[in-house]
Inverse folding.
């Protein structure tokens, strides 16, 4: 990652040059009053050896703001104004990509209006509602900047956080997620979200508090390489971490919804849970299914075997009849299920073997 190199180079303390070394020696030998001219000479020498002092430029050249939206007609204009206000003082160029996820209100009209007055706006409109993940996915394909910001369209995320997110990225991270430390959502959503975040954190080993914050900043290679589909937008940090990207988070301002209502109903909780299983499976075991199914199969088979050995001994040695022992069914069931898990694992391995593909590896650098 060329950008990361820039970051580390800029942050590195200046190397001790030979000039400095000899200065130090002289400092020891000479009385204190000599120090001022020495310092000046040192500055002069340094300037001569490394040319004029380098100006610190921005690490990123262009910011792409991606906004998925579904029926958010009232929020779009104020959101656009706030984004403009946030990016204006920055040195980078910018683009704003609106992805209309099949809205049936006037959202598209508002976007077209905005776009006619500002050539930094790009927009895309789905013919029907495909979901936030799909909207993000196509938005990501349109990104031309080297840093990408995502945010919700409902004004709950605050565009004023853009510079803070970018500053954190510049520390050398690939993805910086917003953390809605003080959030303005209904109680039920806040508590279930806490539970999801906890489970996700434990099962993915990623130490952040808020996985599903709409406000995030990415080095653009992240958004070009992760595959966000279904409703996996909730787990983007997990997908990115699994590709080897470095993740961090900062607390961000959060606001109550100003217009309209949330687009995700109560079904989000069930879907979120199923998606968590998908994410864990696809990120951990997709390339080695036997490690999961083989383990479960072996465990089940072994338990079944122990049960049946016990029953066999009691039949052979103690002559206890098996006709009225429900344990027998459990033993048989465990053995059959074990064999089935094993077979599924083997089938999975065959599929992985046939689907071997270079493109599936996340490559950091090459010449
Ligand atoms: N959204 C979308 N497609 C959908 C549902 C939502 O593009 O099918 C957008 C929505 O317009 C908003 C963002 O995703 O910009 C977050 O949605 P919402 O505010 O309803 O979610 P919540 O804040 O309740 O989690
Ligand atoms: Mg919202």
């Amino acid at each position: 990652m060329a950008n990361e190199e820039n970051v580390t180079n800029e942050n590195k303390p200046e190397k001790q040059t030979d000039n400095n070394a000899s200065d130090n020696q002289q400092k020891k030998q000479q009385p204190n009053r000599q120090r001022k001219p020495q310092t000046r000479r040192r500055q002069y020498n340094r300037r001569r050896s490394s040319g004029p002092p380098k100006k610190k430029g921005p690490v990123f050249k262009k910011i792409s703001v991606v906004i998925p939206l579904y029926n958010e007609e009232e929020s779009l204009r104020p959101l656009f104004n706030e984004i403009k206000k946030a990016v204006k003082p920055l040195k980078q160029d910018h683009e704003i990509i609106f992805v209309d996820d099949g809205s049936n209100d006037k959202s598209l009209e508002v976007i077209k209006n905005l776009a006619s007055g500002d050539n930094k706006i790009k927009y895309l409109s789905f013919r029907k509602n495909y979901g936030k993940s799909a909207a993000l996915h196509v938005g990501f394909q349109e990104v031309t900047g080297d840093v990408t910001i995502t945010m919700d369209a409902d004004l709950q995320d605050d565009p004023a956080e853009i510079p803070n997110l970018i500053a954190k990225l510049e520390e050398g991270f690939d993805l910086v997620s917003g953390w809605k430390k003080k959030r303005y959502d209904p109680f039920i959503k806040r508590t279930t979200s806490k539970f999801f975040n906890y489970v996700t954190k434990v099962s993915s080993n990623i130490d952040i508090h808020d996985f599903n914050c709409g406000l995030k900043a990415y080095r653009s290679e992240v958004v070009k390489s992760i595959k966000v589909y279904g409703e996996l937008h909730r787990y983007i940090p997990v997908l990115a971490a699994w590709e080897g990207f470095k993740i961090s988070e900062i607390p961000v301002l959060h606001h109550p919804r100003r217009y309209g209502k949330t687009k995700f109903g109560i079904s989000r909780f069930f879907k979120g849970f199923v998606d968590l299983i998908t994410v864990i499976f696809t990120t951990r075991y997709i390339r080695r299914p036997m490690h999961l199914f083989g383990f479960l199969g072996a465990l089940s088979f072994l338990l079944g075997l122990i049960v049946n050995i016990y029953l066999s001994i009691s039949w052979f040695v103690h002559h206890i009849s098996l006709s009225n022992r429900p344990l027998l069914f459990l033993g048989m069931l465990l053995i059959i299920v074990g064999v089935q898990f094993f077979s599924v694992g083997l089938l999975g391995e065959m599929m992985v073997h046939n689907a071997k593909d270079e493109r599936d590896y996340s490559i950091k650098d090459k010449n």
About this structure: The radius of gyration is 29 Å. DSSP finds 13 helices and seven strands in the chain. The beta strands are 62-69, 93-100, 121-125, 147-150, 175-179, 216-219, 247-251.
